[in-house]
Amino acid sequence: MFERFTKDARDVVKDAVAQAERTDAARVGAEHLLLALLGREGSRASFALTALGLDDRRAPVREALERARRRGGLTQAETDALAGLGIDVPEIVARVEETHGPGALSGERPRTRWRGHRPFDRAAKDVLTGALRTATARGDRHIGDEHLLLALTARPGVPAEVLADHGVTHASVTRVLHGDGEAKAG
């Protein structure tokens, strides 16, 4: 499948691996793919993100991803649902971090030298597969970074929730990239 990726899409995947390495994450996740997309310039995905007003809100998106990471990857909706059951996730996070240190629920390993291939987690694999399906459904021969963005917004989870909180949804990305007489990515 990787041979069908455009240079931009390959660069996103490589940067996602680098994002995971920077945080010593055991696996490359969907949030790493989003962080990699946020760092892109001059691509179809970066055009869509800019057109949707995310250009000046990238820092808050990164902060929201960091908050979710510290919650062990729970979405805000999941955190709210647990609160409805009387489970105070922020309090649990604070107590765990008090005992075990900041980011203890993040699933990160202690800083050690990583050897070998860093695997992709299920969410990241689902995004890559979703990008392939999106490209195929549109009749595109290659998978671009815009297909990765569309797949991220279509898959439930932290990246889609954080993007939606900033006005970037599957429908809005589709509209900017492909439709309705508005500005389209070239």
From TrEMBL:
Residues 2-186 form the Clp R domain. PROSITE patterns: CLP_R. Keywords: Repeat. The lineage of its organism: Bacteria, Bacillati, Actinomycetota, Actinomycetes, Kitasatosporales. Pfam families: Clp_N. This is Clp R domain-containing protein. It comes from the Bacteria. It comes from Streptomyces gancidicus BKS 13-15.
